Amino acid sequence: SHVEPTIESALVGFNSWKKTPYEQRKQSLKRYQEQVVLKKKELATSVSLETGKPIWESHEEIENVISYIDILISKSDAIIKPQKTSDNNLNIKRGSMLKPIGPHLILGSFIEPCFITSSKIITALLSGNSIIFKPSEKTCYSGEILTECLINASFPKGVINLIQGGDEIGRRLSLNKAVKGVFLTGSIETGKKIIQATHDDLRKVVNLELGGKNTTIICEDADIESALTETTKGAFLSSGQHCSSTGITLIHKSLIDSFIKKFHQTAKKIIVDHPTKYKQEPFMGPLVDKKAVDNYLLYMGMAKREGIEEIMRGKILTKEFSGHYVSPSIHYSEKFNPKSLFVNSEILGPNCTFIPFETVEEAINIVNQMPYGFTSSVFTKNEENINSCL
C-alpha cells in the first residue's frame, strides 16, 4: 500500500529537482556529506551490527562514502555541465545538454550497504533525478540512518524517498512506468527478477551489478609475501561477503605445496569475533544471518560430494556474544571443472579454492570460463605475463 504514495512523492520531488540548477544540486550533496560526517560513528556501528563486519572495516566504508562524494562531484562536472563547441570555419555552434529523466529506484545491497548505495544515490541526484531508496531487508537500519543524512541536507520535498520491504516491494516499484531508472547491486536471481519486470519498458535505464566469483593468478615468479597477504584479504575480508571477494586462486604448479601451506597457516591465525564487542580486534566478524550460514555449510558439503579436497574445513564457531560465526575454509581442486557447481557458484562466505596451472595461457583460459567476470588479479614480475592478462 505504500508503493503508490511513494511514487507520487518521487514525482513531486522530480518536478522541482529537475529545475534546480546544477550548482545548487552540488551544494545539497555537500550538505549531505556534512551530515554523513556527523553520523559516521552511528552509521559504522549500524553496518557492523547488521552485516557482521568488524567495526574497523565499517569505519573504512563510511570514510569511503564521505570521500567518494567529492570524487563523484568532480566527475560529474565534466559530464553533466552543458557542453558547447564551435567551428569558426563553418560558422557553426554546437551544444549538448543532459537532462534528468525521472524518479530512480535504488535497490540497496547488504554488501557495503552505505558505500555502494550512496554512490548510486549521488549519481541520480547530481543528474537531477529524485530517488526512491529501498534498502536490503538485511540492512534496514543502516539505510534509515543514511536516509536521515539526506533528509537533514534539506533537499526539496519528495526528492528523497525511503521505503522498506522485500522482493515484492522492489518488483512493484520496478514495474511502475513512472520509475525511469532502476539500480541494483545483488544476486543473479534478483537481477533476473528485475529484468523480467522491466524488459518491455524500453524507456527505463536499468543498471545491474550481479555478484562475482573472482579469480587471482599467482605466477611462478610472484612476490610470495605480497601474494599471500593480498589473497588472504581478498578471500576473507568481510567474511567473504563481497562481490569482489577472491573465490578462486589459480596457483602455478611449482608453488602448490609451499604457498598453500603458508596460506593455511595464515588462515588459522585469523581472529573471528563479534564486530563491536571483543577482547582482541577481529579480522572477521559473523556472517549476515542464519541463511548465509546454512548456504555456506551447503557449499562445504557440495565440495566434498564433488571430490574437491578440503584443506581447512568451514564450520560453525561459538563465541561469547551471539552471532552467525563460521571459520574460513580452503579447498584444492586438481583441475578446473567447468561443470562444478562449487567452483562456479558465488558462495558469499570466507572460502578460497586453489586450482593449479602450468602456463599463463592456461590460467587465462580458466578465468575466461568462469561465469562471473567482476574482478581479477595477477601476481607476477614478468611484464609479458602482465600484458597477456590485460
What does this structure look like?
- By secondary structure, this protein is an alpha/beta fold.
- 45% of the residues lie in helices and 16% in strands.
- It is built from 14 helices and 13 strands.
- It has helices spanning 3-17, 22-38, 40-51, 55-79, 115-126, 140-152, 167-175, 188-198, 224-236, 256-268, 290-305, 341-344, 360-369, 383-389, and strands at residues 83-87, 92-96, 104-107, 131-134, 160-162, 181-185, 205-209, 214-218, 246-252, 309-312, 329-332, 351-357, 376-379.
- The strands form three sheets. Strands 10-11-12-9-8-13 form a six-stranded mixed beta sheet, with helices on both faces.
- Helix 2 (22-38) crosses helix 6, helix 4 runs parallel beside helix 5 and helix 7 (167-175) runs parallel beside helix 8 (188-198).
Short description:
The protein is an alpha/beta fold.
Number of helices: 14
Strand order of the largest sheet: 10-11-12-9-8-13
Low-confidence stretches: none
The description of the largest β-sheet is: 6 strands, mixed
Average pLDDT value? 94
Element order: H for helix, E for strand: HHHHEEEHEHEHEHEEHEHHEEHEHEH
What is the percentage of strand-forming residues? 15-25%
**Distance between the amino and carboxyl termini:** 50 Å
The oligomerization state is: single chain
- Radius of gyration from the alpha-carbon trace, in angstroms: 23 Å
